[in-house]
Design goal:
three-stranded antiparallel sheet
């Protein structure tokens, strides 16, 4: 099975460097849950036993957030989806279709897990997120795997790196996954031509095969089509002039 990770803002040198390191060395960021865009994510309730109105809601929320920070100090999460063609995900996570989407082979990821000097693995499994209306409790060991059902259409999978004895101690940070698990790179529909060429040249320079694909806007429907780069014709840039409301011609 392939799982995908959207990556945005690769046009600047720093972020393109992160992308290069992923392809060449397998460098993957395992993010602290407290840095996620959803403040409820990986933030179970530590106040579920308290009667309502025992404390101000802001105080109880602060207790939960403090404990989320503790969880984040020892756990890093890499997020994926099975959908490489979701318009909203390209907009939110793929820099408004100006980024990329990378596909990973789960079998390779699970059969080649890195270990530290004590033999402890970077991760144990690939976990399918469980969506629920019920906020996990503090003693729920699966709090890193539960998420509000507001996000259910993302169909998310996670690789969780918990701190373990040895060096490196894993947890949040940038760690090497098996780069041979990378099977596809999908270029966003709004990536400009020079960056597109740079991405293709980088992939072609690697010593292993990655399928190069392009997200294309469906000409008749609100859909994205994922097509092979090799099947794309060269299309010269088009410009023109339009008469604006002030009677002036302007270029578009």
């Amino acid at each position: 099975m392939l799982i995908y990770q959207y990556r945005g803002k690769i046009s600047d040198e720093v972020n393109f460097g992160y992308f290069r390191n992923l392809l060449e060395k397998g460098d993957m960021k395992f993010t602290k849950p407290s840095d996620f865009n959803d403040p409820f994510d990986c933030c179970p309730t530590y106040t579920d036993e308290l009667p309502d109105n025992t404390l101000p809601n802001a105080v109880m929320s602060h207790i939960n957030e403090t404990m989320q920070s503790a969880i984040s100090a020892v756990n890093g999460v890499a997020c994926f989806t099975v959908h490489p063609d979701k318009m909203l995900m390209w907009s939110h996570y793929g820099d408004q279709h100006k980024g990329i989407c990378v596909g990973f082979d789960t079998e390779i990821l699970l059969n080649n897990i890195p270990t530290n000097d004590q033999g402890n693995p970077l991760y144990d499994e690939i976990t399918k997120v469980k969506y629920t209306k019920i906020r996990p409790k503090a003693d729920d060991i699966a709090s890193l795997e539960h998420k509000s059902d507001e996000w259910i259409k993302e169909n998310e999978y996670r690789i969780i790196s918990g701190m373990k004895k040895g060096e490196p101690s894993w947890g949040p940070g940038v760690w090497p996954i098996p780069y041979s698990s990378i099977k596809e790179v999908i270029i966003g529909a709004q990536v400009e031509t020079n960056l597109k060429k740079r991405i293709i040249n980088l992939i072609n320079s690697l010593n292993y095969k990655i399928n190069k694909k392009l997200a294309v806007l469906h000409p008749k429907k609100f859909e994205l089509l994922i097509e092979n780069i090799e099947d794309q014709p060269y299309i010269a840039p088009s410009t023109g002039m339009i008469l604006n409301p002030n009677g002036q011609w302007q270029k578009f």
